[in-house]
């Protein structure tokens, strides 16, 4: 029992604190909410949904984006199934969250491939831990030949190294590879951009026409 | 040690000399609130504009007070290896609130409040209640230069201390240099890890090594360029300062000895050619992590020829040159924090230092165990304040008060 909380409640709080973005205090608030304010159905519904979630939702077998499992037992995401998308353009991202962010922009009309992780030798992630085989077969899918790949990994050291690795792999396959630009946010005044971002924007400048 | 008083000859700031002749802008620490920094549980200090003497016995918190100023100005410490050391024993949080005033010529002075705090391992900084875009931009707002006894290893010790000095200067000259350095360090460690795995006969493709090598080359070249620029700015200041502090007949020269290259293609090739050897070494044989600032007196390396006294004079000259370089780059007179310099230096050299620093016209904080030794004939009584530090408590002394 911690801080006067019943052991069972403290245990639930501890489990909730494992969730991303949830700290100790928030976890305690959630646990107390279920124990006191919420009616029983709220907890039961949430519990049931969580238990069965993985039966209904899995990574897409084509792109690793999160997908609903169809009646045939296969998981294919809405983007891969969308016939209006440009099947010759593929955007590679590190995480599903990055895909969702790019989707919100509405600027990407092609398809995606989610790596799930970045090259990071210091955290024990090598090239063999990346889904490169799956990416290769995706690129060579005869049903939908990819002509251009946009690498949209984050501009961190690990993200840049992953992008360089992918560019080399795919360059050898004769596919046009580009990297997302890095620079100032739209709508923001230049004066508010931090020095590093502004410096990168100037280094990555484009000529007119 | 001689007990003769040390005169701190400070020139008084001049009034603007007509059109175009404005006084150099200066920076003042006007108020300092310290909570839970080492043994200083609580302190509220209102310093004088020129000289502040922090007096007390050893172990009572004099250096902690200087450290608190340094922390509020830079978010770093000049003596702690881990920032958590700053937090007072038994406390959870250490925080410093500093009110800085910046003056530009005869324009009205502008004040800002900088807050730095540590909770556990987390360090948070604010300028006027807002988070700065980066720690690098925070650290360059209110420049301070600290001089403490450990820094006597700057000339005799490992090159890492001299690299740190160059990086501090580079930060003021090119704000992006800190980002390049952080990226270079990470890419370098990652490359090393990949090479070690390749040596253990694990399946590692060339593409993985090349990816990190490319980042090492690009960011390493940027670090090399930034440090070269820092040495170009520091060199003349250092030679000038050394001539004033040490024997005038000797000529000092400072030369940048790069461990890497400013040319990306050259760096790429050098790294690619050393993979096997690098895998067996603690770190790569090529790159700016091997940089040094080579100092020589009359053409001979100081490590070999300099006497103990010359090393001390050289260290002082380095600090004076650092101050001058930051002044030129940032356009503001840095605040000087001198920790117990008189105990490490002979009186003549301390006097030379103080005279030289006096021409800097900045605000000075100095700690001493012997207050009677610090005499400042060139400073108005209103421009000097003495503080006594005892058991972590800071009390201002009235001007005539005897110890």
From TrEMBL, chain A:
| Classification via Pfam families | RecR_C (PF21175), RecR_HhH (PF21176), Toprim_4 (PF13662)
Which keywords does the record carry? DNA damage, DNA recombination, DNA repair, Metal-binding, Zinc, Zinc-finger
For this protein, the record's PROSITE patterns field holds: TOPRIM (PS50880)
Example of a GO biological process term: DNA recombination
**Is Ion transport one of the keywords?**
no
> Which domain of life does the UniProt lineage start with?
Bacteria
Q: What does the UniProt function comment say about this protein?
A: May play a role in DNA repair. It seems to be involved in an RecBC-independent recombinational process of DNA repair. It may act with RecF and RecO.
State the PANTHER family in the record: RECOMBINATION PROTEIN RECR
Q: What family does this chain come from, according to its entry?
A: Belongs to the RecR family.
In Swiss-Prot or TrEMBL terms, this protein is called Recombination protein RecR
Organism encoding this protein:
Chondromyces apiculatus DSM 436
Q: Which gene encodes it?
A: recR
TrEMBL record, chain B:
Where does it live in the cell? Answer: Cytoplasm
GO cellular component term, pick one: cytoplasm
Q: Which InterPro entries match?
A: DNA-binding_RecF, DNA-binding_RecF_CS, P-loop_NTPase, RecF/RecN/SMC_N, RecF_2
- Please state every residue range assigned to the domain named RecF/RecN/SMC N-terminal: 29-374
- Domain of life (superkingdom): Bacteria
Q: Name one GO molecular function term.
A: ATP binding
Q: Which GO terms describe its biological process?
A: DNA replication; DNA synthesis involved in DNA repair; double-strand break repair; SOS response
> Which amino acids does the record list as binding ATP?
56-63
Keywords for the protein's UniProt record, in alphabetical order = ATP-binding, Cytoplasm, DNA damage, DNA repair, DNA replication, DNA-binding, Nucleotide-binding, SOS response
Region (Disordered): which ranges? 1-23
Q: Which NCBIfam families does the record associate with it?
A: recf (TIGR00611)
The entry's family comment says: Belongs to the RecF family.
- Name the UniProt record assigns to this protein: DNA replication and repair protein RecF
Q: Which organism is it from?
A: Chondromyces apiculatus DSM 436
